[in-house]
Design brief:
single chain, 283 residues, two-stranded antiparallel ribbon
Length: 283
């Protein structure tokens, strides 16, 4: 056995644990979902013999599910946009600041990740709920104190941004940190103002980081369940909530499987398109 074969074998051994994990944690469950989506389920007998497309027809011919799909995409995109607006300045500060100031920013950004999503979401439930500090401050903004926040799309987007902001900041900061100082100096030497350097040089070169963060936030937001369920108070219907409802409440495994497959395929398509765009930019 030569060195090349030995090295290839060593790489395969290193990949073996993750390959086994993916088979049992992703491929097998997805195969079961596909099987369930194409069979008829009897409430008493379970899956029956033969194949059927009835659950696909039921989902894709029902305007309710299209509204749920549209709302999931809309809320995920809203979370992405708010994360960019908040996260980009934070990423710039991470690159510009040094020492203690950078440590403080990292601590504020990463410390919430050590707290579970359920705890953080219930924290927002207290802040945004009736009698909470944000609800009490609404009259100062000229809004009625009876304005409801919990159970609205605004509450869900706030919760998603808090959960996934770090996923936006870190890729942007990595892109900014990798900028070649010679390019920035060349722009300054040729008389570009700081604003022009930022808009014509820094921001375009940081777009791969923005795109990477956007894909991560979109994918995580589209699949999030706890935050839309708690802050949406069952009034904001998204794909994850409908999937849970089909499996756990209605025991309609076929329809729940169709919705699950649609969610996975949609998110995978977004990730694939973003990866292709990144590769074409880096080529």
């Amino acid at each position: 056995m030569n060195n090349s074969t030995r090295e290839r074998l060593f790489r395969l051994i290193l990949l073996l644990p993750i390959a086994i994990f993916l088979v049992f944690a992703f491929i097998v469950p997805m195969g079961m979902m596909l099987s369930n989506s194409a069979r008829h389920f009897d409430p008493l007998l379970g899956a029956t013999e033969g194949w059927s497309a009835e659950y696909y027809q039921a989902v894709f011919s029902d305007p309710f599910y299209w509204s749920v799909i549209a709302k999931t995409g809309y809320l995920s995109l809203a979370a992405v946009l708010v994360c960019i607006l908040i996260g980009y300045p934070v990423a710039v500060c991470l690159v510009l600041f040094q020492g203690r100031h950078r440590t403080i920013i990292y601590t504020g950004l990463l410390a919430p990740l050590f707290v579970s999503a359920i705890v953080r979401t219930y924290g927002w439930l207290i802040l945004l709920g009736q009698g909470g500090p944000i609800q009490s401050a609404l009259p100062w903004l000229g809004l009625s104190p009876m304005t409801r926040i919990i159970g609205t799309e605004t509450a869900v987007v706030i919760g998603l941004v808090h959960l996934f902001l770090a996923m936006m900041v870190l890729p942007i900061a990595a892109s900014l940190r990798n900028l070649d100082p010679a390019v920035l100096n060349a722009a300054r030497i040729h008389g570009a103002s700081p604003v022009r350097v930022y808009t014509r040089v820094i921001f375009p070169l940081s777009l791969p980081g923005v795109l990477s963060g956007a894909v991560a936030v979109f994918a995580l937001s589209a699949g999030a369940f706890v935050t839309p369920a708690i802050l949406g108070a069952s009034k904001v219907r998204v794909m994850s909530y409908s999937i849970w409802e089909q499996f756990s409440v209605l025991h309609n495994f076929g329809q729940g499987s169709v919705l699950s497959i649609f969610l996975v395929v949609s998110v995978a398509a977004v990730v694939f398109l973003a990866s292709s765009t990144l590769r074409s930019k880096n080529a």
